[in-house]
Amino acid sequence: MSLTLYDKIWNEHLVHQQEDGTSLLFVDRHLIHEVTSPQAFEGLRNSNRKVRQPNLTLAVVDHNIPTTDRSKGIDDEDSRIQVETLDKNCKEFDIQLFGMEDKRQGIVHIVGPEQGFTQPGTVIVCGDSHTATHGAFGSLAFGIGTSEVEHVLATQTLVQKKAKNFRINVNGKLAIGVTSKDVVLQIIGKIGTAGGTGYVIEYAGSLISELSVEQRMTICNMTIEGGARAGLIEPDQKIFNYLKNRPMSPKNENWDKALKYWNTLKTDKDAKFDKEINLTADDIVPMVTWGTSPQDVVSIVGKIPNPKNENNIDKKNSIDRSLKYMGLKADVAVQGIKIDKVFIGSCTNGRIEDLREAAQILKDKKKAAHVHGMVVPGSGLVKEQAEQEGLDKIFIKSGLEWREPGCSMCLAMNADKLKPEERCASTSNRNFEGRQGRGGRTHLVSPGMAAAAAIAGSLDDVRKYQN
Amino acid sequence: MLESTKTKMKKFNSLKSIPAYLPIVNIDTDMIIPKQFLKTIKRTGLGKNLFFEMRYDDRGKKIKNFILNNEPFNNSKILITGNNFGCGSSREHAPWALLDFGITCIICSSYADIFYSNCFKNGILPIILKEEKIKELSEYSKRKEEISIDLKEEKIIYRNNEIKFDIDPFKKKCLLEGLDDISLSLEKLDQISSFEKKLIKNKPWIFND
């Protein structure tokens, strides 16, 4: 029988299957962080259980930590307790942790690939919905809740039912100034925020193979914004080259064995998908979100939608509510909407290529006087690389702040947040009400678009700024 | 102390309550429980911050026209709401907050996958119904009339009517008996061990590097 890549990875990890399809799936890689793990460790302690495979578990602090000078520790008491709790739990259960002082520390979904912990054909889970990022390596990667984190710690397995197969084909070429962020925003706009619910998405097509590994990660990262828990891409030579010689990648003869296996990770030619859509890359333009759901996308040359044009009452109410929250009027041109802040970073767009993309636009330019902007590298290693390339100097010279790595204003758990009614061009993944701070207004964009917005002081078309 | 290791979760029995109707679509987990409350290392105590930004004004005062702030809905055990409920983050703090508030049953036309699965781990029953049935039930919220949930029979009972709902039989059993997933999985320890042995042999790189 012809199988999809998802089918194959699923089958390879089946430990047990009940008649009703409820399955026990083996987990090869478990990533944990300080926010969604404390209650899981507490559960283990209460039931007198151990971590079954500490070696398959990697911990990192990211959500809560300051992105400013860390030498004095964390001011916020609750955040500090969470970070200290992770440290204590990792020591007690013998799990490797990249703490705040570790150069390898960073956002969990940037650290995994960077270290070679993320590998093709594996099942990867983490108590974070953006775990789908790792699917770019041809792994089945998805976010789980804290009870499931505890389950994985205790058993190295997870109880799951198989999802359906959904393939999204993107063929053609992207125009200059258009990035994989625009592709994924376009996809979410098309399928809707619940369009992928119950499915695992495979991204395919000529454009996807042409994208770099990091660009692929941006697409898989936002899969959850389209409702699917996991999104994956067939691994190819680019992936193997990326992984070669990473600290946790297979070595020597294991590398050869792994490579042989990884080369088999392909969807069969006549495999059946329950759902399939096609997009033409050439038609995609720089995108912006206008509302409070990632599906609320519009092209940078477009206009804010008018609820009057919507017949469905729920949808109409939803547009009304979003426009009110966002402080926007219907039918206004997107280009020219004044912004207050710019955020460049997050597990969606905090990798070196993202920083290069933003720096290229900002080189020898100044941010608009009223704009406050921060650049937050995704990890300590991304930061180091960027500094070697002099990107930090470009950002600082243009008037943006260069910060320490972490999740930062993507979810605003630390001190980095929007004030009520502040408007932000953000390279993150969610524009929910209050996501970047109570009353804050988020427009999701690509790194280049964020850079253009910083210069213009308003939402603007990155294609005007190509150096 | 736990009743026994296999019944960590509270059993879901039948339920009777005036439902609260919150007709908003795509309610995300940031709306259910904003990030500032994710800094806890406990599962309890989140109920007072449920729907924080819709429920309290800037000065922390309760917003009058928010449904859960008013009698009798401040005691509702059933929440009827718009589709794609619980989208966004995987935070289990969302079901913890609902549970701590007292809500043990949610009714809407669709849920986000992670949230849906998180509900069952906490003894919350998420029911899926068609939109027209949701509209019908929401009238009971408006009239402040009770409805009943019978999980065993898979039906919602209101006045002399009833609506059947579907639920995965295994998930239903776990809710009814308050079964703990981890204990159930640990019963398959032999199978897990032999899977691992096979893995070490066939894919040594998973463990070795």
Task: Explain the overall architecture.
The complex is a heterodimer of chains A (467) and B (209). Chain A has 16 helices and 19 strands. Chain A has 467 residues and is α/β, with parallel strands linked by helices. A five-stranded parallel β-sheet of chain A has the order 5-4-3-6-7, sandwiched between helices. In chain A, helix 2 (38-46) packs across helix 5, helix 13 (352-362) packs across helix 15 (391-398) and helix 13 (352-362) packs parallel to helix 16. Chain B contains nine helices and eight strands. Chain B is globular, with a radius of gyration of 19 Å. A four-stranded antiparallel β-sheet of chain B has the order 1-6-7-8, with helices on one face. In chain B, strands 2-3-4-5 form a four-stranded parallel β-sheet. Chain B is of the alpha/beta class and 209 residues long. The chains are: A alpha/beta (467), B alpha/beta (209). Chains A and B meet through helix 2, helix 3, helix 5, helix 10 and helix 11 of A and helix 4, helix 7, helix 8 and helix 9 of B.
From the structure above, extract its key features.
heterodimer; A: about 475 residues; alpha/beta; 5-stranded parallel beta sheet; 16 helices; B: about 210 residues; 4-stranded antiparallel beta sheet; 4-stranded parallel beta sheet; about 15% strand
How do the strands and helices of this protein lay out in sequence?
The complex is a heterodimer of chains A (467) and B (209).
Chain A: H1 5-12, E1 14-17, E2 23-26, E3 29-32, H2 38-46, E4 57-60, H3 77-93, E5 96-98, H4 108-115, E6 123-126, E7 140-143, H5 146-155, E8 157-160, E9 164-171, H6 180-191, E10 199-204, H7 206-210, H8 213-221, E11 230-232, H9 237-243, H10 252-262, E12 275-280, E13 287-289, E14 297-299, H11 313-326, E15 341-344, H12 346-349, H13 352-362, E16 372-375, H14 380-388, H15 391-398, E17 401-402, E18 423-426, E19 441-444, H16 447-456
Parallel strand pairs in A: 3-4, 3-6, 4-5, 6-7, 9-10, 9-12, 10-11, 15-16, 15-18, 16-17, 18-19
Antiparallel strand pairs in A: 1-2, 2-8, 13-14
Chain B: E1 15-17, E2 20-22, H1 29-32, H2 52-55, E3 78-81, H3 93-101, E4 105-108, H4 113-120, E5 125-128, H5 131-142, E6 147-150, E7 155-158, E8 161-164, H6 169-177, H7 181-186, H8 189-202, H9 205-208
Parallel strand pairs in B: 2-3, 3-4, 4-5
Antiparallel strand pairs in B: 1-6, 6-7, 7-8
